[in-house]
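Job type: complex structure
Entries:
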Amino acid sequence: MTVQSRRQFLATGAGLVIGLALPMKGRAQSGAAAVMTRDGLPAGTFSPNAFVRIAPDNTVTVMIKHIEFGQGPFTGLSTLVAEELDASWDQMRAESAPANDELYANLFFGLQATGGSTAMANSYTQMRQAGAAARAMLVAAAAEKWDVPAGEIKVEDGVISHADSGQSSSFGDLAEAAAQQSVPVEPALKNPSEFKLIGTDRPKLDTVSKTDGTAMFTMDVYREGMQTVVVRHPDVLGATVASFDDTEALKVKGVEAVRQIPQGIAVYATSTAAALKGRSLLAVEWDTSEAETRSTAQIYEDFSAAATRDGGVVVEETGDSGAAIDGAETVHEVEFRFPYLAHAPMEPLDVVLERKGGNVEMWMGAQFPGVDKGAVAQTLGVEGGDITLNVMLAGGSFGRRAQTTGHIGHEIAEIAKAAGGDGAWKLVWTREDDLMGGYYRPLTVHKMRAGLDADGNIVGWENTVANQSIMLDTFFDDGKSEGKDPTSYEGSTKMPYDLPAMRVNWVRQKSPLPILWWRSVGHTHTGYATEVFLDELLEKAGKDPVQGRLELMKSEAGRDRAVLEKVAEIAGWDGERVKGDRAYGVAVHESFSTYVAQIAEVSDVGGFPKVHKVWVAVDCGVAVNPNVIRAQIEGGVGYGLGSVLFNDLTLLDGGVVAQKNFDTYRMLRIHEMPEVEVAIINSVADPTGVGEPGTPPIGPAVANAWRALTGQAVHHLPFQTAGA
Amino acid sequence: MTNFTINGKDVTVDVEDDTPLLWVVRDELRLTGSKFGCGVAQCGACTMMVDGMPRRTCVTPVGSVDGASIETIEGLGGREAEAVTAAWQGLDVPQCGWCQSGQIVSATALLREVPKPTDADIDAAMAGNICRCATYVRIRQAIHDAADSMEG
């Protein structure tokens, strides 16, 4: 164990606390220079690192560097700390860490960021070390106070004790003394066989506040003299204001100003209701010369025409798939079409900004808080260091708050700039702003082609993917991309199946319509295209969907194999795809290093699928919080199911978005939610995420069941549009 | 001027009669547990109890509740509400949490009318409350658990 003197850090004059360098297997960078002040903490609070605070009242608060929007980091990351600290779960609390790209970096990305289902994976060692360091310092303090060897001291369930002397203490009573101890840099961690909290269920730390109305979200923030602002955004994405008339809007009681900003026309009011009424009375003419004015139908035709075998860039190739398919006994070709989708989190986008002199404070549910801070700094011409961003709980996101362009930061900053001077503003997007505002799951075309030999073996497999790029030309583009954006086609490559010849190419498409990652990103469409296409090939070959997949799996695909075998076991799979009026469909898909297999039970109710039950097997490594894993899988299934059944964010002729609210953009409701049974594979592998991986397999599982039941293959989502 | 009671307290608000009750409760009374989700009575996040009945307050003009008794998540009381809240906590129903105030108010209203609801009763009573995290499996189970807990 390396020990670093606390004095070094005190000498910097920062007040407290420490720098814990926590290397993460050579991945990205650590939280390195962890320095924070003690401002606002109760006297005697022990804060051994940027993540853990132990107060004299014996509470242990974990600063959570990832935004909590339902996926569970408050509970999950606190579990890691509590485990190594040997704390009692009752004393654990969680708080959002403020925006700080150095202290609170995602170790996979090098900046503070929540995305790619990485919260648990990148924090696993870091948070355990944070807890272990605090434990070691408490033990050292106890040893000093009781004058006993540290090695004889036990910590269990929040109690520090020494058997021979009969001494014992709570954490809180030793907090102040612990703060005087040296900070271990690489404290020893438990062997997984010693885990007590990890792997067991316990109450989530954010549940109570989310059942009594006290949980604080961005929209719940009110500041002295704050104005609520709504913006009239264009109906056509990429349009700009040509002219506007605010005469009627300004007559509304409570409307205090109307200003043009680059994003549209901002209405400033003393209340949300007044702002909304004022906005409804604006007359705006739009300039659509730079806008996306194509209809969805036209975009599909354009993308489809571009999706040729010779187009774009080859992203994976093994063998000569072209020759293999040309020489095959049977050739199967399918074009899949996937629509634009809105994330539609329950809390629409919002942000509060207060400006006082040179200082700016923000409240926002941000997945990349540093990006949003940067956007504000740039627009307002202030230093990033003069901006405090409080990361708030968010009412869902599903990727919508992971903004590569910081567009909400830019918008609130333009609002503040147009108002001028000091003040506080809350920007509220309505559901219409949300659904019509772009940043959708990319519309995507997959053209797939495969050949079977006389025995039904797949001899060649080809997939041409055409869609827009999420990452190229954004700050995620490090210049080494070689024109490839894996988020456009991830999941269509590196498949678990042993295909003798295969080829995937990606043809990038461009549009002024902004797109973004949507729960499971590329896997939302690649999982569907590959698992439906494969199922059709197995059917043509007369093979069982489960056995056929298992036979095709590479020898190294052990985890894919295990989840497929497990789901077949819990669903009682016997090879019968149809039993009475029910049909069963299978899909298996890995995303973000988590392996998920699903079997869906489907019937035909009036020509439309009714999903009764979904069996799921998941391998996400060490199951830190089984209850959270099950919840995320249930939710991922529901989220994916609603979209494949109902959702198509449609552009009409001229580019106007057809669906403006939940009356036409149909969400899955309780009577459409299937029963979900989840089996979690036992594992000691480092944990991986569960926020997204439950989503990709549900669509193909349902489609494969539906085809078995009705003979109808669904290649153009959603089912509703496909005429199912 | 509109007068009503909210969570047992008499209040008078001086806002336009057509102002949606949701925004009066949030912006004027600063009770922020009730949420905005759609503004067109499609999602149920704004649900409050108005004279004992669940109401989508994003489309309820404040002028229409003059003299009414209103309950929000902050003041929801009685054995059904307590049973529902306990069941919600027992199953860790919430994920993001945004819709859950509305879900709890709707579930409480259901149990006040139907002490032992069937799945079909739950579908009928809860179909107006959207949850994008799709916590529906647990919502359904929590309502059954709450009903069971009140039997004893």
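Summary: Chain B has a mean pLDDT of 97. DSSP finds five helices and five strands in chain B.
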